[in-house]
Amino acid sequence: MANELxxxxxxxxxxxxxxxxSGNSYMLFTDDxxxxxxxKEIDIPMCSYWENGASVGAEVxxxxxxERFSVIPKEFSGVYVGTTTLNSKISAEHHDDPYSGEHYKIxxxxxxxxxxxxxxxxxxxxxxxxxxxxxNRRWKDG
Length: 142
Hints:
Layout: E1 12-21, E2 25-28, H1 31-34, H2 37-41, E3 47-50, E4 58-59, E5 63-67, E6 69-97, E7 101-120, E8 123-128, E9 132-134
Antiparallel strand pairs: 1-6, 1-9, 2-3, 3-4, 5-6, 6-7, 7-8
């Protein structure tokens, strides 16, 4: 956090970035799908990684990890209402053991804290804590 800010509920803060879902994902295919007549013509991987906007997925063989969120640089101000903790990475890992057979494990990891900031009526953004600072608003005497 900038300047070791410990925001309080209702405090006005300035933000320099926010997060949104990256759009990256994994697709798992069961043996039922992989063994259809159509799949005999093409090779369908058991697990594939799809980067946001990609038209073709990349096969995951042993282990793959990607970002769950993208940080969008944008200057804005808003009202701090609290923090939340979200896992920032998604991973796919191949397992092959005699008890459960061959399978992939998809999980989220690397928890990070984010500020919940309302910037307009009914509109909120999640902001990395290092991208917030106190907003010293000066009122004009009038």
